[in-house]
TrEMBL record:
It is found in: Membrane. It is a multi-pass membrane protein. The keyword Lipid metabolism does not apply. GO terms for molecular function: phosphate transmembrane transporter activity. Signal peptide: none annotated. Keywords: Membrane, Phosphate transport, Transmembrane, Transmembrane helix, Transport. GO terms for cellular component: membrane. One of its GO terms (biological process) is phosphate ion transmembrane transport. The chain crosses the membrane at residues 26-44, 56-78, 84-106, 146-165, 200-220, 287-307. The keyword Transport applies. This is Phosphate transporter.
C-alpha cells in the first residue's frame, strides 16, 4: 500500500501516522504474545503439573479455559445485543454451555482413567505419591497420559480459536485494498462506512485456505518444530495466548499479524522453560524475514504499479 501510494501521490499521499501505528503493532504483537503465553504456561505448570493429582487438575482446568475462550469470542465477534449488559450476559451463557460440553466430553473419554488414578492417590502414602508417577519435573506415567489427553483435546479447540482470530485479522488485511477499490468504484465517500460484499470475504477466506493447503506445511514445520519443543500443554498455551491477543487487537482495529503473534507466543512458552530452550538461529531467521518483507513488498508494489500503468496506457 505504501509503495502504491508513493507512485501515485508521492510522499504526501501516505498517512505516515497510520503507518507508524501499524508498524508499532508489528513490534508489540510478538511481545504481547510471548508475555501472555509465558503466563499461561506458568499457570499450567503451577496449577496442573504441581498439583497432587495433575490429571484431575487438567480435567478441571479445561472447562475454565473453554469458558474464557468461548465467552471472549461470543462477546467480541458475535455480540447478540447492542446493550452492553445483555451482550455480556449472553456471552457468559455461551461460555458456560461450551464449558459444560467440554467437561462432559473429557469425563466420557478419560473418566475411567481419572477415577483409577484418583483412587491410587487417595490410598497411597505421602512417600508413595512420588513413586506413583509425580515428581518436581512434572507428571509421569498415567498422570502424564491424562494431562496430555486433556490438553490434546484442548489444543484442537485452541487451534480453532487461533484460526478464527487469524481469519478475523489477516483476511481483513488482505481484503482491505480490494475493499477500498470497490468503494471508489461504487462512488462511496472515503469517510463513509465501506460495505464489503459477502462473496469478496469468501474469496479472501478461500485464498487463506488454499495457501495453507499448498504452502502452509513449511510454516507449520518452522513454528511447530524449529523454534522450541512443543507438547500438548505448550502448544495449547501458545495458541490460546496468541488467539487472545489477535482477537483483542482485531476488536480494537489493529491490523497486527497473527503469524508474528503466534511466533512470539511459541517463544514465550520456550522462555518459560529457560532461555536456552528457544533456538536462537531460527528466531533470527524469522525476524530477518519479517524485516526484509516490508521494503521488498514496497519495492515490488512500485514495480508492478509502474508496469501495469504503462500497459493500461498502451491499451487505452
Amino acid at each position: 500500500m505504501v509503495g502504491f501510494g508513493l507512485v501515485y501521490g508521492g510522499v504526501n499521499a501516505v498517512f505516515w501516522s497510520s503507518l507508524a501505528r501499524v508498524s508499532s503493532s508489528w513490534l508489540i504483537s510478538p511481545l504481547m504474545g510471548a508475555a501472555v503465553s509465558f503466563l499461561v504456561y506458568k499457570c499450567i505448570r503451577r496449577f496442573v503439573y504441581s498439583a497432587p493429582n495433575p490429571g484431575q487438575a487438567a480435567a478441571a482446568s479445561a472447562p475454565i479455559a473453554v469458558f474464557t475462550g468461548v465467552t471472549a469470542i461470543s462477546f467480541a465477534a458475535f455480540p447478540l445485543s447492542r446493550t452492553f449488559s445483555i451482550a455480556v450476559l449472553q456471552a457468559l451463557v455461551c461460555g458456560a454451555i461450551g464449558a459444560v460440553f467440554v467437561s462432559r466430553a473429557i469425563k466420557k473419554q478419560l473418566g475411567d482413567l481419572l477415577s483409577s488414578e484418583a483412587e491410587k492417590i487417595a490410598t497411597a502414602d505421602n512417600t508413595d505419591v512420588q513413586q506413583g508417577g509425580f515428581d518436581v519435573a512434572g507428571p509421569r506415567g498415567a498422570q502424564l497420559q491424562i494431562v496430555y489427553g486433556v490438553f490434546g483435546y484442548m489444543q484442537v479447540l485452541s487451534a480453532c480459536f487461533m484460526s478464527f482470530a487469524h481469519g478475523g485479522n489477516d483476511v481483513s488485511n488482505a481484503i482491505g485494498p480490494l475493499a477500498a477499490a470497490l468503494s471508489l468504484l461504487q462512488g462511496v465517500a472515503s469517510s463513509a462506512e465501506i460495505v464489503i460484499p459477502t462473496e469478496v470475504l469468501a474469496w479472501g477466506g478461500f485464498g487463506i485456505v488454499a495457501g495453507l493447503t499448498m504452502w502452509g506445511y513449511r510454516v507449520i514445520a518452522t513454528i511447530g518444530k524449529k523454534i522450541t519443543e512443543l507438547t500438548p500443554t505448550r502448544g495449547f498455551a501458545a495458541e490460546f495466548a496468541a488467539a487472545s491477543v489477535v482477537l483483542f487487537a482485531s476488536k480494537l482495529g489493529l491490523p497486527i499479524s497473527a503469524t508474528h503473534t503466534l511466533v512470539g507466543a511459541v517463544m514465550g512458552v520456550g522462555f518459560a522453560r529457560g532461555l536456552n530452550r528457544v533456538r536462537a538461529e531460527t528466531v533470527r531467521e524469522i525476524v530477518v524475514s519479517w524485516v526484509v518483507t516490508i521494503p521488498v513488498g514496497a519495492l515490488l508494489s512500485v514495480f508492478y504499479t509502474l508496469i501495469l500503468t504503462k500497459i493500461l496506457k498502451y491499451f487505452m
